[in-house]
Amino acid sequence: MTNDVPKRLQEPDLTAQTLNRFDKPSDLRLTEIMQALVKHSHAFVRDVGLTHREWQDGIAFLRSVADFSDDKRNEVILLSDHLGISAMVDLVSDREKTTETSATGLGPFYIPDQPVLENDSSILTSDVPGIPMWFEGRVEHADGAPFEGCIVEVWQAHEDGLYDLQAGEAINMRGTFKTDAQGRFGFTAVYPKGYPLPPDGPVKPVMDKVKSAFMRPAHIHTLVRPPERPPLVTHVFLPSDPYLDNDPVMGVRADLMAQVVDVSKGAERVPKTVAQAELIKKVRYTFVV
Ligand code: BEZ
Ligand code: FE
């Protein structure tokens, strides 16, 4: 037995010993992350006085979150969103403010290769209930000049709060557009409503026990890819939504609020996909990248 082996290990010494084991790193950044993880997780266990039983429950919960996830539904993202981790990564990644418009959360329902569509066409592939909406977007440089040639992906939920992936249907309410010489793009769909976070996985029962909010304010997801500039992942929110003050995933920012006006039939030229509607909601938003 050597003198270095303690008779009774003290809590802080365990943290130091664990960190000492990462002594000849081949990946310095990974080592930095792992060391911080050790320090913060040890502090967490000590702060709350975590019991064996609670840690077993925690391990079972993490396992259920992973087991529930698949290619179409990632419950790990939902957990990260709920704990504010995704929003914190957004803030940290945005420290240098590469875009004027705030970046906020991709969420679990993005899929790459969304259909490429003409401007002002409909992103609906089936009849869905709801008030017809015309989204008129614009992408600008910081000096206000139009940004032509940006690829803009959009995706949103049905009025009943489900994304196509959740409803088990083919692609619906998603599209990819390109800004024109005025920096403009547009599409039609239905005016979104606030909706509950996916309730069918293992995250919801835990969040219910701590009375965490579950309703997201109405929004449209967007991913803007300007040529030769960093992409912007964000949401556009709709004013006067009752859930704006208590978004469970902390995605709301004041600059992400759209302008909405009601347009009656015949009052102005609207895309032909919504021209027959008595009333449409025209939603306008400018992204500054
Ligand atoms: C969403 O808005 O699609 C979303 C974001 C975070 C968690 C769940 C859903
Ligand atoms: Fe969403």
Query: Which H/E pattern describes the elements?
Result: HHHHHEEEHEEEHEEEEE
Shape: elongated
| Major sheet attributes | 5 strands, mixed
Poorly predicted runs: none
Question: What proportion of the residues is helical, as a percent range?
Answer: 25-40%
Assembly category: single chain
Structural class: alpha+beta
Q: What ions, cofactors and ligands are bound?
A: benzoic acid, fe (iii) ion
CA-CA gap between termini: 63 Å
Question: How much is the radius of gyration in Å?
Answer: 23 Å
- The overall pLDDT, averaged over residues, is 92
Query: What is the count of β-strands?
Result: 11
SS element count, helices: 7
Q: Order of strands in the sheet with the most strands?
A: 1-5-2-11-10
Strand content: 15-25%
Report on the structure:
The chain is an alpha+beta fold and 289 residues long. Helix content is 26%, strand content 21%. The protein is built from 7 helices and 11 strands. It has helices at 11-20, 28-48, 52-68, 75-82, 85-93, 164-167, 203-209, and strands at residues 121-122, 132-140, 151-155, 174-178, 184-190, 195-196, 215-216, 219-225, 232-237, 259-264, 279-288. It has a 5-stranded mixed sheet, with no helix packed on it. Helix 1 runs antiparallel to helix 2. It is elongated and about 85 Å long. The model has no long low-confidence stretch (mean pLDDT 92). Fe (iii) ion is lined by residues 107, 157, 219, 221.
